[in-house]
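Form 7-S
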Amino acid sequence: MTETVAPQTDTPTQDVPTFDLYIAGEWVPSESGRTFESRNPADRRDLIGHFQSGTPADVARAVRAAETAGGLWRRTPAPKRGEILYRFGQLLADHKERLARAMTREMGKVVEEARGDVQEGIDIAFLMAGEGRRMFGDTVPSELPDKWAMSIRQPLGVAGIITPWNFPIAIPCWKMMPALVAGNTVVFKPASDTPHCATLLVELMAQAGFPAGTVNLVTGSGAEVGDAIVDNPDVQVISFTGHSSTGKRIAERAGRRLKRVSLELGGKNGIVVLRDADLDLATDGIVWSAFGTTGQRCTACSRVIVERTVLEPLLQRLEARTSRLRLGDGLEPTTDVGPLINDAAVDKVESYIEVGRRESELVRGGHRATGAGLEHGHFFEPSIFSRVKPMDQIAQEEIFGPVLSVIPVPDYQAAVTALNQTRYGLSSSIFTRDVNIAFRAMRDFETGIVYVNAGTIGAETHLPFGGTKETGNGHREAGHAALDTYTEWKSIYIDFSGRLQRAQIDNQEI
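Output:
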């Protein structure tokens, strides 16, 4: 059995705070008068707080506040906007440990990973702050004499930001930092599983000096708050990370109003292990990618595609390493794997375990973890299936939990085919000592991110993040490419000839 660590409850459930919405620079209750709870997934007895159940009317208030603030914010020089982002990044750094521990308590990832989540927020804040002085356009020669031609970026207006629970600091920062430095204002709806992290984040944004109405927070359900943001005619751009089916529905609704939509959706990421690979290094990368964040990452490795000649030695290593992983509260320093986010996630993983038992061979795990100290949380054993076929259901559908499918193949070309035979294309990896094959993999793998001799997780904020196929709709987050979502191009021509010059008309005098 997998080792367990008893969860610790840091905060008693008595005297539980109630948190408000943040609209037009003020913390205010919802017009609904209703609240919902956020609880610790490692110990459901631990009630974190009550949060406002927002309504379409609350969204309308937030959008009006964002519109009102937008005129002054877009006229604020971009370097000055960047200075506020720098202050915010420093506040994140100053409060990193507090935020990380609050994150672990609310969504379950081990505290070391939570620190990394906050660090991503810090990194993107500093990166985008720099874009305030770097927001390049183009200058080009005009075809006419005494004429200047250039292009600049301009903000779109109000950005609707809808984020998931698995990276409750990093992903909101990935989206809000480029939106804000470009001169947009924001209406932010976090996942209902992590409203406390969102509240702490917005508190620091207010402290950093973002003007009232520039950033607005509305908590609540997708049906009440998310749809209202998508449908509001005064929201010009939507950025969403989450389930593919939800993203498709958002694209349909937003398409009726010709809104710009950036979607970051599912993944079914694979690691290819070839016969010449360093199997110990590959094992490290696979275990970290498959079971870090309890498999609840869009970039998590859920498939290992391995040449048959090294299948058994790799499986032995994976089983041995997985058997030593310790489940428990992520605030405990000895914990390796925290809980799943909620009961529905546990049910989903369990249902796929049953599918996998019918399709292949379960070699490790496969059960809810209910040992001593885990009975009040959403824990599931890290699980491994062997001899999975590339088109099996567990090899094709996103499980979003600690379930790994090992797929044997005869050679590199078969590995490429198996890797690419999914409807997703976010992240991939190859372990090999052959530099020629590594470069072929960079070309052949149909994913937005490719790693060589590393796992499928660990993207850095200064490169574009995103995928191909049904992983998204072509936009990228992070890197300077993130600005593309939140800006539109304006071309400008300045004629200083003192006479009317007609472009493309063949009567010019030089």
